[in-house]
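Job type: complex structure
Entries:
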Amino acid sequence: QSALTQPRSVSGSPGQSVTISCTGTSSDVGGHNYVSWYQQYPGKAPKLMIYDVTKRPSGVPDRFSGSKSGNTASLTISGLQAEDEADYYCCSYAGSYTWVFGGGTELTVL
Amino acid sequence: EVQLVDSGGGLVQPGGSLRLSCAASGFTFSTYAMHWVRQAPGKGLEYVSAISTNGAGTYYANSVKGRFTISRDNSKNTLYLQMGSLRAEDMAVYYCARYSSSSYDYWGLGTLVTVSS
């Protein structure tokens, strides 16, 4: 199972919006509405930010939103804040009890 | 409060074995599927293994199939990962994670496995 494709890095200024893409195939992202997104600070465990493509867990700011079109899912962060600077990973169910992550995207807040 | 405490990592020689544990608290452990996810140094996250609520269903990434065994003891609220025939590429921080609503909603702090002679 190949990893999902994410941009290595994205950046934005405070207050701006950024979008991180996550491209897979019809076997994973395109075939299931089970895409989730995780935020990870250096040396820390990941934190769930979005699940089931668009749903936000309790406590996650509504500045974070998810979407999907075809084989590509996206995470959008609006009103960028300094604390959003972290690595972000997408994950998708890939069928037959397998799951696949993206390679990760480093978000820099300028 | 949900807590997952992974332990058991350490230094092991290539070809060796190690057993990881994950002690769960703050929720009804027996009603959740559990997974192991790993992260090699400086790399991304990788799904390793999953287990159903009662342990009857176990699943593995191709990279570890036949070498790793996942198990759980619901009476002890503990998840395990028995790792064998370890290779350099298995070196990583291993996280246990609770699987809920098709995502990993809680993660352990991770335990580092170093494979080196």
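Summary: The first strand of chain A starts at residue 9 and ends at 12. The mean pLDDT of chain A is 96.
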